[in-house]
Task: structure prediction
Amino acid sequence: MLAFDTATEACSVALQYDGQLLVRFEELDRGHAERILPMIDEVLREAAMTLRDLDAIAFGRGPGAFTGVRLAASGAQGLAYGANLPVVPVSNLAALAVQALQLDAAATHVWVATDARMQEIYCASYQRTSVPGAPAILGQESVVGGNALALPPAELTPFASTRIVAIGRALSAYPAVAARLAGWCAASFDAALPRAADLLALASQQFAAGCAVSAELALPVYVRDDVVRAPVTPMQ
Result:
């Protein structure tokens, strides 16, 4: 299976074949559209494979940057159509939860918070399960801003006595978000970005469970309804 992601500053690819894993990862301010296909070509050539040799294609379906999420979805659709492959859309927040549970083997729960820009964050809470690489979401993915940035996640309150960690660039982007961790967060990973290898771990579980979809259903998930906001016109 091939997985790739362009939803954040990270531009990454992962290919799993014959028990091996090939990865590419670059952090870019821009230029994801120019880099993602060459990165995919690199890992396929290294594995001596073509797209038609794959079982499925997985991609980071968001939430994340509007153009980046749309790029990943359209790229997955195009590649899957051309090779007649199913597609596995994977949450970028869930991928970060996988990473956090790898970084802290004792953690039981994860709060994921990524920068949604415009003084808002994308966030979700997850619980470790008995299946490696498959954390369970508590509640749902959401976008919050304003005073809510400083509030602890309500869905984690019942687990206050467990080991909860936090992950995502929003932890360093907004002081209010960092401040809210006090008292309940055992560790934080504020430099982390989603990785295609973690998307692949989730996608493998979903594919095995029969959750792959056809190419036309490889759709982005923005979470934020108003992905583009018009500038406010000053009152005359």
Remarks:
- Residues 227-236 have pLDDT under 50 and may be disordered.
- Helices lie at 32-46, 66-83, 92-103, 170-173, 175-179, 196-208.
